[in-house]
Amino acid sequence: MSLLDHELELLAPAKTAEIGREAILHGADAVYIGGPAFGARHNASNPIEEISALVEFAHRYRSRIFVTMNTIMHDSELDLARKQIWQLYEAGVDALIIQDMGLLEMDLPPIQLHASTQCDIRTVEKAKFLGDVGFSQLVLARELTLDKIKQIRAQVDTPLEYFVHGALCVAFSGQCYISHADTGRSANRGDCSQACRLPYTLSDNQGRVVAFEKHLLSMKDNDQSANLEVLVDAGIRSFKIEGRYKDMGYVKNITAHYRLLLDELLERRPEFARAASGRTRVLFTPDVDKTFHRGHTDYFANGRQEDIGAFDSPKYVGVELGTVVRMGGDHIDVITNASMANGDGLNYMNKRTTVGIQANKAEKLGDTEDGQRWRVFPNEQMAALPGLKVGTVIHRNRDHQWEAALHKKSSDRHVGLQLTLAETEGGLRLSIIDEDGIVSAADAAIALQPAQNAEQAESGLRASLAKLGNTMFVADHVELKLSQPWFVPSSAINALRRDAVSAHEAARLTAWQRPERKAPAEPRAVYPDTQLSYLANVYNEKARAFYHKHGVQLIAAAYESHEEAGEVPLMITKHCLRFSFNLCPKQAKGVQGVQGQVKAEPMTLVSGDHTYTLKFDCKPCEMHVVGAIKPGILNSAPPSAVAYSPLVFHRKRPH
């Protein structure tokens, strides 16, 4: 089984198997998680044994488990990757998320392959090609507009996946080499140094400072909450939450948030169905503002927006809580818009720095016309809090009481059952059919005795059968097919119910069918271009063979294969700093006295001892951060990596 066109899949991240289980209980139809190696998040790996246990838990709910193997690999790693893939297949994993095309040239088990966002899928041609070579699901670029998604969906029959929430990489995924250039840590090898979160100074072509020490490459966080239905109508079928480094509270909160939104949509749109089984009951109020974020943006879904950057701080400042109205020797008084609690995490801005405070003690002084007045005793001496004064705006980035609810059981998920009790020659049989149509039965040898009180006996049997307690099931309907009312001891009927439920759990696992690998199209698909630059991330001979087989004639090596290179784009992004500071030629169009005077001239970006040139490609509306590998930086490829021909750059980039 694959994701069907009428099914909507909520796809949640998991740093660990434990977080993965909670994601499923909070409504995830699928979970993606890192395996032992080759995931694009080095510090989010998991052993095969734990993934295997997560798979069994997930399949009980018909949820799927995807494992990320989305780094590029050098030749010496391919055999280890192949062995890991077979281990994951034997552990029951449903799909692999990959970017290295060399894997398609290997002896792999018939496991589904999903094209990672690092494949940079932005065009109809690229999406169609990847579907035709055997990918079962395509993770589209985050930068796509709704109109572009519709264009792809109209011509591509492969299920489309799209990030709906979480941190945004400023570069097109797979098209960022700034980390490797500056530190030797390759993002495409799973070790990004997150240069986009550093402060930068921006200067124009005449050396004039446009912005000083701002986090100019740091984006707000993706939030498509308001666009879910239009994304469904555009053709998205898998809704992906970013966050394989995120903690349990984040995954619970954001998964539950989107589960409730999708359930509301499914209620109104009966032509669609949930991709997995069960009904989720959330035991807290999800709030996207109360777990880590840098502000919210829907990025380019509805076209270019003016305020997509988190320039002031890459940290989580939380929700605005109130304003300081009085300074005491060991406390501050704050007028707030919400209640507080001991242990709340607070912060404020001092110049360009976020200063954190923990409220060791919070006392409510009373209500005012402007809100609640609270006295806060910080965990620091007042003298150690720079810039704090009357009028300072206070944010809360840790709501102690709300987070406490997430440390407890905060959701459950139940699969609906219809239970039928009938007589057999030697006792009773309890038959079960669930919401997926899976059937099982259990028998018990019980000496039946006529009931003295028929009504009481019948109600007692129904109540006992419906007591599914801490199981994953809920009784939607109980039917008694008995020739007459029987008295059955509670211990006997309870034992029969437990045996039947256990048998049904086993039946659900037995009935699970792993989704099939998609067969490549015949005749063989032809790649949209005949040549590839370093941007294609070809890092091993099998990847080269793959592209040659599909019609590519000239193939440059991956950026990571070279110890030296000239000035080249280290980052290609839809984010444009000229636009952010109203210096875009397109913004000047039609402005009297300005049109024709503003040109997309290069600018300079500086962070510490790193200097980059910004070049602007206005036709596709892209910004290129240009630089070179710094002297002394170690190459990410080990000595055994194959040395390819010199780096080749082409004006025409792969789709």
Poorly predicted regions are 592-596, 634-655
Distance between the termini: 30 Å
Q: Count of DSSP helices?
A: 14
Named CATH topology of the domain at 7-168 and 220-282 = TIM Barrel
Averaged pLDDT: 92
Shape designation = globular
What portion of residues belong to β-strands? Answer: 25-35%
Q: Assign a percent range to the helix content.
A: 10-25%
Radius of gyration: 29 Å
What strand order characterises the main sheet? Answer: 1-2-3-4-5-6-7-12
- CATH class of the domain at 7-168 and 220-282, named Alpha Beta
Tell me the CATH superfamily of the domain at 7-168 and 220-282.
Aldolase class I
Biggest pleated-sheet summary: 8 strands, parallel, barrel
**Category by helix and strand content:** alpha/beta
Q: Name the CATH architecture of the domain at 7-168 and 220-282.
A: Alpha-Beta Barrel
Total number of beta strands = 33
Could you provide a short overview of the structure?
The protein is built from 14 helices and 33 strands.
Give an overview in words.
With 655 residues, the chain is an alpha/beta fold. Among the domains are: 7-168 and 220-282, Aldolase class I (TIM Barrel), CATH 3.20.20.70; 317-407, Thrombin, subunit H; 415-511, no CATH class. 23% of the residues lie in helices and 29% in strands. The strands form six sheets. It has an eight-stranded parallel β-barrel with strand order 1-2-3-4-5-6-7-12, surrounded by six helices. Helix 12 links the parallel strand 28 (531-532) and strand 29. Helix 10 (454-466) runs parallel beside helix 11. It is globular and about 100 Å long.
